[in-house]
């Protein structure tokens, strides 16, 4: 048994080494990608129900590797967080999204997205002076603070240290704060008492439940009640079907994001975005 245990131990370590090597390769390539033209942002509409009119957008990063082709953020963002590369990468994302937001305001006027949302990782929020950097980007690009939304997860805020202070400083600039994947963490409700939040993104896993057979949408309904009581905007994430959209709207939800309305798209496609106009 002992030798089996030992053998397993060795196999485990080899796998770990393999994964680590893979990750450092990804990280090394990503460092190069920052300097070349392999990274770009897509934007997914956040819409108003029931009509599907454009309310805002969320910036989502994409990487086209010269050899491997498209690599999803679910793979390389964690690697970038571990290596710290997310700090320069995140700075690039923030500035790129703010520049695009200014462009839309020039090109689309009143029809431009009213908010442009940027995902900010725990590692970025932990970086001292992050709020100052957000301020500097707003100054450089000329984007009004109220148009920017910084989206963070609960774990990022509770990462400890100065994360919460940075978030408060960002809110003090007039930037909106969204809590991502809300309800999936360990202390979501506690977070609402300490964290300055404007938007609550109700996680897809709860949205998936709203049309499950006979399963009342208790959590989704409760999250809306909490949002309204605390004057937060609730956004239902990952809405994939007309039935889900109809049920969410019936419950009182006004904002949604998901493939049912629109997939993440290039910036120019936002200029041309029109609601499908089927009522849901
Ligand atoms: P997230 O912030 O929760 O973003 C939502 C993810 O769900 C996106 O995946 C989006 O394409 C996808 N999605 C949207 N609507 C639907 C739907 O109706 N059905 C389904 N199944 N999926 C939907 P994506 O773009 O692959 O991003 C995955 C995650 O990677 C993001 O989750 C976020 O945590 C991270 N990420 C993406 N872009 C960035 C970025 O610029 N910075 C940081 N720090 N993280 C990012
Ligand atoms: Ca997000
Ligand atoms: Ca999310
Ligand atoms: Ca997520």
Automatic annotation (TrEMBL):
Q: Which residues form a coiled coil?
A: none
Residue limits of the EAL domain?
23-278
Q: Can you say what this protein is called?
A: Bifunctional diguanylate cyclase/phosphodiesterase
Q: Intact protein stretch covered?
A: 471 to 750 of 754
């Amino acid at each position: 048994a002992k030798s089996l245990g030992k053998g397993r131990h060795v196999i485990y370590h080899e796998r770990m080494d393999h994964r680590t090597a893979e990750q450092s390769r990804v990280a090394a390539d990503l460092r190069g990608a920052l300097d070349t033209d392999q990274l770009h942002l897509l934007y997914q509409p956040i819409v108003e129900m029931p009509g599907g009119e454009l309310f805002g957008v969320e910036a989502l990063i994409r990487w086209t590797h010269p050899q491997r082709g498209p690599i999803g953020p679910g793979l390389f963002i964690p690697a970038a967080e571990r290596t710290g590369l997310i700090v320069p990468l995140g700075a690039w994302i923030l500035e790129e999204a703010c520049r695009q937001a200014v462009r839309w305001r020039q090109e689309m006027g009143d029809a431009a997205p009213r908010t442009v949302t940027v995902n900010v990782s725990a590692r970025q929020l932990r970086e001292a002076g992050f709020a100052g950097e957000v301020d500097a980007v707003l100054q450089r690009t000329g984007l009004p603070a109220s148009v920017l939304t910084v989206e963070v997860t609960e774990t990022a805020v509770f990462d400890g240290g100065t994360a919460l202070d940075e978030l408060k400083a960002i809110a003090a600039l007039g930037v909106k704060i969204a809590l991502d994947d809300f309800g999936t963490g360990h202390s979501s409700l506690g977070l609402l008492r300490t964290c300055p939040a404007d938007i609550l993104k109700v996680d897809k896993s709860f949205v998936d439940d709203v049309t499950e057979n006979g399963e009342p949408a208790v959590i989704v309904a409760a999250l809306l009640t909490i949002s309204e009581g605390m004057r937060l905007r609730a956004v239902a994430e990952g809405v994939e079907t007309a039935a889900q959209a109809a049920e969410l709207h019936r419950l009182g939800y006004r904002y949604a994001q998901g493939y049912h309305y629109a997939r993440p798209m290039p910036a120019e496609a936002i200029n041309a975005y029109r609601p499908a106009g089927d009522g849901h």
